Amino acid sequence: MTASGIRVLLVDDQELVRVGLRMVLDAADGLEVVGEAADGAAAIRRVHELRPDVVLMDVRMPGLDGIEATRRITAESDAVRVILLTTFDLDEYAFGGLHAGASGFLLKDVASDELLRAVRTVASGDAIVSPRVTRRMIELTRGILPAATAQEADDGLTEREREVLQALAAGASNQEIAAQLFLSESTVKTHVGRVLSKLHLRDRVHAVIYAYEHGLAGPGRA
C-alpha cells in the first residue's frame, strides 16, 4: 500500500461492471482505482505496469480467463492479492481459483459495504469468502477433502481453536474474530495458523470448506 491508500485494479470484460465498481471504490476513503483491464492477459500486463495491492478479477472472460490470470499473477508476486468476482451460478470451473492463489470470492451483486470491507481485508493480508459463495462452494466440492466425522475432524484442536475455525467458516476476518472472542488480532493470527497446521490445510479458504465438510460449521451450529 502507498501513502495514498490501497491501489486497486479492476478486471472484467463488461465495461458497465467496471464502471459500477469504480464508482463504489473511488468514493471510499483510502482506496484508489489505478487501472482497468478487460481480459486476463491485459490484467497481467497492467499488474506489471501498475503494481496494485488488490485485483478484483472476473472469472469468465474471453481469451485468458480469470483463473489462469490469477494463477500467473500470484505465482509472480505475494504482494498482489486477488479477489475473484463471480455470479451466483457457480461451477467447478470457478473453484480452480482455490488452487490459483486467490484470496477469496465475491458475488458480482455484492453490497457496497461488503465490497469495501473485502478489499481492505485482503489488502491487510487476510482472506475473505462471501457466505453465499461458501454455501455454494460446499455443494460443489463435496468429496474433495477426506470424509470424517465431526469428532475425528476436531481431534487435536483446542476449544479456542475450534471457535476460531467456526468463525472462519462464517466468513469472519481476523479483526472480526478478535472482537467476537475478545482476543487481540495477533492472538487470532496465531490460532488461525495453528488450525491450518493441525488440519493440514493450505489456507483459510480451505478451512471454510473443511469446517462445512466435517460438520464443524453450518446451519444451526454455534
Account of the 3D structure:
The protein has 222 residues and is an alpha/beta fold. It is 49% helix and 14% strand. It is built from 11 helices and 6 strands. It has helices at 15-26, 40-50, 66-76, 97-100, 112-123, 131-140, 150-154, 159-169, 174-181, 185-198, 204-213, and strands at 6-11, 31-37, 54-58, 81-86, 104-107, 128-129. Helix 1 (15-26) links the parallel strand 1 and strand 2. Helix 9 (174-181) crosses helix 10. The radius of gyration is 17 Å and the shape is globular.
Topology:
Elements: E1 6-11, H1 15-26, E2 31-37, H2 40-50, E3 54-58, H3 66-76, E4 81-86, H4 97-100, E5 104-107, H5 112-123, E6 128-129, H6 131-140, H7 150-154, H8 159-169, H9 174-181, H10 185-198, H11 204-213
Parallel strand pairs: 1-2, 1-3, 3-4, 4-5, 5-6
Mean pLDDT: 82
Residue share in β-strands:
5-15%
Biggest sheet, strands in spatial order? 2-1-3-4-5-6
Helical element count?
11
- Class derived from helix and strand content: alpha/beta
Question: Which percent bin holds the helix content?
Answer: 40-55%
Distance between the termini: 36 Å
Give the SSE order as H and E letters: EHEHEHEHEHEHHHHHH
Q: What's the count of strands?
A: 6
Radius of gyration: 17 Å
Shape: globular
Largest sheet: 6 strands, parallel
Give the low-pLDDT segments. Answer: 147-152
Modified residues (4-aspartylphosphate): 58
Protein name: Response regulator transcription factor
Keywords: DNA-binding, Phosphoprotein, Transcription, Transcription regulation
Domain Response regulatory: 7-123
